[in-house]
Amino acid sequence: MDMAGHSMIVAPDGTVLQSAAMEAAVITSKLDSTAVDEQRHRFYPAGDRSWLTTDHEKVQDLDTVAAKTRLIRRQGSRLAFTNGCFDLVHAGHVSYLEAARRTADCLVVGINTDASVRSLKGADRPVNNEQDRARVLAALGCVDYVILFADPTPLRLITTLLPDVLVKGADWPEAEIVGASEVKAAGGRVVRIVFQHDRSTTALIDKIRASARAPINTF
Ligand SMILES: Nc1ncnc2c1ncn2[C@@H]1O[C@H](COP(=O)(O)OP(=O)(O)OP(=O)(O)O)[C@@H](O)[C@H]1O
Ligand SMILES: O=P(O)(O)O[C@@H]1O[C@H]([C@H](O)CO)[C@@H](O)[C@H](O)[C@@H]1O
């Protein structure tokens, strides 16, 4: 390859494989086939999509998520955080989480453990256990990380992560949103998402119970 004037041969990830001096010259570079395959997977999105994060990689502890999000925020990405019980996930949850993700570049969701849900919503809740609830949310493309928390509130997660955006449903007045003052004091903002679907887990459970009591149609 005829090159001159500090021309370079650069790999897709920016690695300089070879550079020319001022005078015209032929320069070559041996290509490492393993490196080429690895970069094809990273830079060629129509490939086997191995770059997609698999669900179980998204469910992490707070320290791991704090370290991973610290790195991407140093690169300029903004972090959004929300939390909830997310027992029987419904269309309202999905539209809510998609809207939450759109407020930033990365979305972390705190999910209450089973014991925490029981203390908040009663002894007959949750219907789905914490592992299943985490697994379902991790399958949503708009969710980047899921953290299970046992405390009554997500305050420790929020003060550790100090997200750029704290998101909650509009069913929560800002004054009652845990972490709101801490996030705003750190320069972040609070976003309350208006419901697009009139859904709730409680209503779903009531519907299931009512249908179980209803007489079966006999012909
Ligand atoms: N219909 C909805 N549309 C948008 N967001 C919702 C909707 N229902 C709940 N959310 C939001 O989802 C998050 C998780 O809420 P939660 O798990 O309590 O759902 P829920 O359906 O209200 O459950 P429950 O009936 O058990 O209280 C909260 O931030 C809440 O504001
Ligand atoms: O699913 P819910 O009931 O919306 O989730 C609760 O949200 C509370 C909220 O963040 C208070 O501002 C939180 O304290 C509680 O632990 C549940 O996550």
From TrEMBL:
Which residue ranges run through the membrane?
Answer: none
Enzyme type, top EC level: transferase
Which keywords describe this protein according to UniProt? ATP-binding, Carbohydrate metabolism, Nucleotide-binding, Nucleotidyltransferase, Transferase
| A biological process from GO | carbohydrate metabolic process
Instruction: Quote the InterPro entries the UniProt record gives.
Output: Archaeal_FAD_synthase, C-N_Hydrolase_sf, Cyt_trans-like, RfaE_dom_II, Rossmann-like_a/b/a_fold
Q: Does the keyword Cell inner membrane apply?
A: no
**Limits of the Cytidyltransferase-like domain:** 81-174
Pfam families in alphabetical order: CTP_transf_like
Which reaction equations make up its catalytic activity?
D-glycero-beta-D-manno-heptose 1-phosphate + ATP + H(+) = ADP-D-glycero-beta-D-manno-heptose + diphosphate
As one GO molecular function, the record gives: phosphotransferase activity, alcohol group as acceptor
Q: Which domain of life is it from?
A: Bacteria
Cite the EC number: 2.7.7.70
Q: Which NCBIfam families match?
A: cyt_tran_rel (TIGR00125), rfaE_dom_II (TIGR02199)
Protein name per UniProt? D-glycero-beta-D-manno-heptose 1-phosphate adenylyltransferase
Q: Which organism is it from?
A: Desulfobulbus oligotrophicus
Lineage summary: Bacteria, Pseudomonadati, Thermodesulfobacteriota, Desulfobulbia, Desulfobulbales
